[in-house]
Design goal:
With 423 residues, the protein is an alpha+beta fold. The chain has helices spanning 19-35, 49-55, 61-66, 85-94, 139-156, 171-185, 192-197, 211-217, 231-244, 289-292, 307-316, 336-351, 365-374, 385-390, 412-421; strands spanning 39-40, 46-48, 68-71, 77-80, 104-113, 125-134, 161-167, 250-251, 263-271, 279-285, 300-306, 329-333, 356-358, 379-383, 392-397, 403-407. The protein is 37% helix and 21% strand.
Length: 423
């Protein structure tokens, strides 16, 4: 029997003590995305299974081995989303977003679910930040999407990262490459999955994680030798735009993405701080996806970045996060009358956006002050009969012990604001 007081393997709780790290990343990613004209979208946690089978590709590892799929009570097959792009594309079609002014630019935060062997930087449920552009056809838009991600990493202060790019061409120029791959892999000692895929989707073999297959792949033909007359200038223009943006990159002709919807430009951001699982952001162009899942032909491109891996990089590199908010004022009450007045003052402070607390457990004064110290209260104030009678109390700076008198009947909130501003 599984322990119900333990999270399922491959998942983790985001605890209050660490949540400020997530807030730091979410604030920067949102700010940068909005500066590029992106608007937030939120899609369901699960979708119809066919969406991923058609969108991602039935021969991919994700669909064949990693999805969490189940039947609902009416026998319909549903899947917890393994990535964010297919759901965003489905929503854009369903709600007519692609009929509005193009390009349509979206961003999202979502949980993604994949049944993989859990290890450092790889969870069965991970959080992802994603960006999608629809209707952006020029090579400049490929570079702009990459630049958006790069701007985020710059603002976060990441250092030891590198960008790898490649073009996997369009369906037309991949036909000749497909024939070359089949000829190359024929009679090779492939793993059972690759042997099954060879005739159906030979490019998937390039993404195989099996050790012997990875050795074979080192001498496989590269797609860039087979790019057609349209794909070559597109890729050259993307590289030119990246150079114009001042973004360094490395061409990796063996880079392919593990999802079938990609066309032309593909890219990955990698970090030396992550070890073997060094990719933390990846994406590219997917001009056929909208049509594949039932919409009218509209170009698409974007990326997804793993937020857990991003936090790991920042921690490894010793980068700072926005400090968590702490309690502004703790009011310790000595009796019932003081408790009533104190609760009223706390409410006024909270209405003005301050974090204020008072006792809810029946502690004595000493225990209340210890609690105020534990929660990191910046100031504390004791209320008793003397304070209620005089209308004045002392605010104590919890760091240096300095005390300041305040009027608890008039101008209280303004006085607290002044004291806090002086810190």
């Amino acid at each position: 029997m599984p322990l119900i007081t333990k999270a399922p393997r491959g998942t983790e709780d985001k605890l209050p003590a660490d949540i400020f790290k997530w807030h730091t990343i979410e604030k920067i990613t949102k700010t940068v995305a909005e500066s590029y004209g992106c608007k937030e979208i939120r899609t369901p946690t699960f979708e119809h299974t066919e969406l991923f089978q058609r969108g991602i590709g039935g021969t991919t590892d994700v669909v064949q081995k990693e999805m969490y799929t189940f039947n609902d009570k009416k026998g319909r097959s549903l899947t917890l989303k393994p990535e964010g792009t297919a759901g965003a594309a489905r929503a854009a079609i369903e709600h007519g977003l692609l009929g509005q002014a193009l390009p349509l630019k979206l961003f999202y935060y979502t949980s993604c679910f994949r049944y993989e062997a859990p290890q450092s930087g790889r969870l069965r449920e991970h959080r992802q930040f994603g960006v999608e552009f629809y209707g952006a056809t020029k090579p400049l838009s490929d570079a702009e999407v990459i630049c958006l991600a790069s701007d985020i990493f710059t603002q976060l202060g990441l250092k030891n990262i590198r960008l790898e790019i490649n073009s996997i061409g369009c369906p037309e120029c991949r036909n000749e490459y497909r024939s070359e791959l089949i000829k190359f892999y024929n009679n090779k000692d492939l793993c059972p999955l690759c042997a099954e895929r060879l005739l159906r989707n030979p490019m998937r073999l390039l993404d195989c994680k099996n050790g012997s297959c990875r050795e074979i792949n080192k001498t496989a033909p590269v797609i860039t030798h087979n790019l057609c007359g349209k794909c070559v200038p597109h890729f050259e223009s993307v590289k030119s735009s990246l150079s114009g943006f001042g973004i360094d990159y490395v061409e990796n002709p063996r880079l392919v993405r593990g999802l079938d919807y990609y066309t032309n430009t593909v890219f990955e951001f990698k970090s030396d701080s992550l070890g073997a699982q060094d990719t933390f952001c990846a994406g590219g162009r997917y001009d056929g996806l909208i049509e594949e899942i039932g919409g009218n032909p509209v170009s698409g491109l974007g990326f997804g970045m793993g937020l857990e891996r991003l936090i790991m990089i920042m921690q490894t590199e010793g980068l700072g996060f926005t400090p968590p908010k702490t309690c502004d004022l703790y009011i310790a009450a000595l009796d019932i009358a003081a408790e009533t007045v104190g609760a009223g003052l706390v409410k006024k402070l909270r209405e003005c956006g301050f974090w204020a607390e008072t006792d809810l457990t029946g502690r004595g004064l000493g225990a209340q002050m210890k609690y105020a110290d534990k929660i990191g209260a910046r100031f504390s104030m004791v209320l008793g009969s003397d304070e209620l009678e005089s209308g004045f109390a002392f605010i104590k700076n919890m760091k240096d012990g300095e005390k300041s008198e305040v009027n608890i009947k008039e101008g209280f909130v303004e006085r607290i604001n002044t004291l806090l501003s002086g810190l």
